[in-house]
Specification:
1 helix
């Protein structure tokens, strides 16, 4: 992301000031303030069914909180979604 100056600015100055307060509000049990949150990673994934790229594949992010943001309008594609496994009890 650092090599994409427009994307870097968009994420750091437009997205994160909106995303971090929403995360802090949604996960109040974390007892954290938005200014204490940090971006642990950022990736843009382009799916293209015509070329067989339809999923990222099963993986673990390894972070406390993960946010997925659709860059297309929801009526521009079918499917999508995220599976989040429950913690063992």
């Amino acid at each position: 992301l650092e090599n994409l100056s427009r994307s870097y600015s968009l994420v750091n100055f437009e997205l994160l000031p909106r995303l971090f307060p929403a995360i802090a509000n949604a996960f109040q049990l974390l007892e954290t303030r938005p200014e204490n949150l940090r971006l642990g990673g950022c990736r843009v994934v382009k799916y293209d069914a015509s070329e067989g790229r339809v999923e990222l594949g099963l993986h673990r992010d390894g972070l406390l909180v993960t946010a997925n943001i659709a860059l297309n309008d929801l009526d521009h594609y079918e499917g999508g979604g995220t599976i989040i496994e429950g913690m063992p009890s």
